[in-house]
Specification:
The chain is mainly β and about 475 residues long. It is built from one helix and 36 strands. The protein has two domains: about 375 residues, Regulator of chromosome condensation 1/beta-lactamase-inhibitor protein II (Methylamine Dehydrogenase, Chain H, 7 Propeller); about 70 residues, Immunoglobulin-like (Sandwich). The strands form nine sheets. The chain has a five-stranded mixed β-sheet, with no helix packed on it. A four-stranded antiparallel β-sheet has the order 1-2-3-4, with no helix packed on it. The N terminus is likely disordered.
């Protein structure tokens, strides 16, 4: 299927995990969310919602479901409005393209690059200029946002189109990266993270923040007691520091107290707390103070929850490791795993989200699969029973798959290497390509060549360092590939 590249589409690409689609699902601390598509897709759908409506379910003690109701801070699921174990549709929630869920807040990015939030206002994590809770969506006073991240503690991150990052909320340990920390350092409105430019991806843990630059380096700030900042110390930081020795990174993920990094070839490194094997190196002892190689390959996206990690492979399978007390790893057991194991029952996955103790998986047919803790209805199955292998949510609209996926309409038709270089990339395939083009992160075309015969050498040595989208059109096939020039 042919796609038209516009500035908005490039922005959507940057909202992503490495599969180049905007995040349409989000698992928080005992609550879950999804952005609906339109129409009925397969057996997963028994209801529809207009446009791109947002659905929410799970714990609602602070109004984090955004449907205009809430329980009380210490409520249990027997109390009115405290929990919703089936998805509810949010009013006036069309035109949202990305969603992120934290401890008790939810953030949504609209297609006009504005951000809307609801949930717990304590510490200022909503960014509304106060500490009040809200149970329906309110607009954050910030513009030109292209990506969002809600921490599993109480802080929030905003990536702007100019490559700068802004933050708000809890800042006792320096997780906001504004040069301050301590009991009086919380911010109720977004402030700029110091010293960062050229950022293309963000991730928020419980008390730490990660930032991926367009040169493939990773920067980090905040709580570091377990080594989650990867600088071989356990000293907290209140301004971002570059993680030493970590290069050619294309995707990042943050668990509660650990960090995960995907390199350009699909290998994975992780650092931080490793009590349950969440680093994935075959051990479940000792914190990892520097990025440590995880025993998995072929990975394109990662995410982290409460002491566990989740990995999406390029073949559409999902793997996981770490804590498994409620079945959040989805391997059919409740046994912790120190090396990644394959998640059962799911294939052709295009997005993943690691909730605090539950996993979410979006298939390429728009169906949503879930596993793990369900004590607060966060699985959306109409009950409160936890499960240890994924099942699909029947009573839900087809989830929207926004943006352009890599290898759209193409399977093994082209091979591109390296994906990180100083400007030259070899493209192998069969026959000819009508057009090869390259776009920068602003959506501007920086290279175009027509009627090319394979093998073909792409040379963009004259452009600035950073991340680009390579597009190959050949017959009815279109391939979109993220490449990095350094």
């Amino acid at each position: 299927m042919k796609q038209i590249f516009t500035n908005l589409l490039i922005i959507v690409l940057l909202l992503t995990q490495n599969n180049l689609s905007s995040q349409s699902i989000a698992g928080g601390n005992f609550h879950s969310h999804a952005i609906c598509g339109t129409g009925i897709i397969g057996k997963s759908s028994s209801v529809t919602a207009p446009g791109l409506s947002v659905l929410s379910w799970g714990f609602n003690n602070y109004g984090q479901l955004g449907d205009g109701t809430n329980g009380t801070p210490a409520c249990s699921c027997g109390n009115t409005n405290c929990c919703k174990n089936l998805p509810v549709t949010l009013a006036n929630s069309q035109n949202f393209i990305a969603i992120s869920a934290g401890a008790a807040i939810t953030m949504m990015l609209r297609n006009d690059n504005t951000v809307w939030v609801y949930g717990r206002g304590t510490f200022g994590a909503l960014g509304l200029g106060n500490t009040s809770d809200v149970n329906s969506m309110q607009q954050v006073p910030i513009t030109n946002v292209i990506a969002i991240a809600a921490g599993s503690g109480n802080h929030s991150l905003f990536l702007k189109g100019d490559g700068t990052v802004w933050s708000c909320g809890y800042n006792f340990d320096g997780e906001l990266g504004d040069g301050t920390n301590g009991a009086a350092a919380n911010k109720v409105s977004p402030v700029q993270v110091l010293g960062l430019t050229g950022i293309i991806a963000i991730a928020a843990g419980e008390k730490h923040s990660l930032f991926l630059k367009n040169d493939g380096t990773v920067w980090a700030t905040g709580y570091n007691a377990y080594g989650q900042l990867g600088d071989n110390t356990t000293v907290n930081k209140n301004t971002p520091i570059q993680i030493p020795g970590l290069t050619s990174v294309v995707a990042i993920g943050a668990g509660d107290m650990h960090s995960i990094f995907v390199k350009s070839g699909g290998s994975v490194l992780a650092c931080g707390r490793n009590l349950y094997g969440q680093v994935g190196d075959g051990t479940a002892v000792n914190n990892k103070l520097i990025p440590t190689t995880t025993s998995i390959s072929g990975v394109i996206a990662v995410d982290g929850g409460y002491q566990y990690s989740m990995f999406l492979k390029s073949n559409g399978t999902v793997w996981a490791c770490g804590w498994n007390g409620f079945g959040g790893l989805g391997d059919g057991t409740n046994t912790d795993q120190s090396t990644p194991v394959q998640v059962l029952n799911v294939s052709n996955i295009v997005q993943i989200s690691a909730g605090y103790e539950h996993g979410m998986y979006l298939k390429n047919d728009g169906s949503l699969w879930v596993t793990g803790s369900n004590a607060n209805g966060e699985l959306g199955l109409g009950n409160y029973s936890s499960i240890n292998a994924p099942t699909d949510i029947k009573q839900i609209c087809p989830i929207n798959i926004i943006g352009v996926k890599e290898n759209e309409g193409v399977e093994y038709a082209f091979h591109i290497y390296p994906t990180v270089s100083e400007g030259q990339y070899k493209i192998e395939g069969e026959g000819k390509s009508e057009m090869i083009s390259v776009y920068n992160i602003q959506g501007e075309k920086v290279f175009e060549s027509t009627n090319n015969t394979f093998p073909y050498t792409l040379n963009i040595s004259n452009v600035s360092n950073g991340m680009y989208i390579l597009r190959i059109q050949s017959g009815q096939s279109t391939l979109n590939k993220r490449i990095i020039k350094n």
